[in-house]
Amino acid sequence: MGTGSVFCKCKFLCLGAMVLFLGGCSGGGQQEQKSAGQPLVERNTIATILDRGQINITFNLAAERYQFKDKNNEPAGMAIDLAKMIAANLDVDLVMTDTSWEGLIPSLLTDKSDFLATTMSTTFARAQQVLFTSEDWYITGVSIWTKEGNAINNWQDLNDSGRRIGAVAGTVSAEVAADYFPEAEIQTFQIDTDVWEALVTGRIDAGMNDNIFKNTVALNYSGKLTLLTTPRELVKTDTWAYAVRPGDEFMWHYLNFFIKKVKENGQLEKLEEYWTKGDQWRVDYVQPGMQLSETRKNLVKFIGISDYEKEIGDTYRVSMQ
């Protein structure tokens, strides 16, 4: 029996064990909160998802390799695969919504998204609004690019009143730009492509984005943009984790359990290898007229999401709204 199916069959046992654990450990905390006059926020998003037979997740589908729309206008990427795995393990349909980056946290706090499974960096500012899982699913960092032929070789030289630095609004890159380059003019854009185009056309002197875009930029802007690696390639490192609503303790425990398990059984490693280490994903999901490779089909089966992959399963349990 495959790892994915074992995980799926064990979900109810795990859920029951976690309910008992939380029930046994939370009594004192409830009493303390009530005595302090602060109402306890009780949620069970997992039970709601199981009752409706559907999980709702909001994404910003603008990051190749991680979360984007493929050649058939279907969501694809490493983060999407992980979301499909969560849906498969709960045996529910997956409904995704595409929104702007700045709309992600509001979608969570207004119950439009059951949790956030996107490429979201953990920051102190965001932790004041949402509860991040203690387990991260990716480690990366922020880098800087300039236009090819630009005289700038050291990104520290960008901290000057005459320099213009671009980043996507609401992202860690924009925060790092403001923190590390207080003297420069920081310009924000709606999507990643806007930053690159502004840099190519000379409207900004440098563009800041996640280091995950290194291969994509090298491919799409070869001879046009240069990654600055002095004094180091990563201006600042950061981690990605899932986010839940404050008080949604059961969901928080379940997602930590999920991330820990996919790390232990090698599924996360295989996903990272496929989506970030090579370009087979581009052949499978970007190049028109190409069918899924055997590599991709085998990966889909290994991570247990056949019914969430259009060309493989007997049914297709994914939709966009």
TrEMBL record:
<feature type="domain" description="Solute-binding protein family 3/N-terminal">
    <location>
        <begin position="54"/>
        <end position="279"/>
    </location>
</feature>
<dbReference type="InterPro" id="IPR001638">
    <property type="entry name" value="Solute-binding_3/MltF_N"/>
</dbReference>
<keyword id="KW-0732">Signal</keyword>
<protein>
    <submittedName>
        <fullName>Extracellular solute-binding protein family 3</fullName>
    </submittedName>
</protein>
<dbReference type="Pfam" id="PF00497">
    <property type="entry name" value="SBP_bac_3"/>
</dbReference>
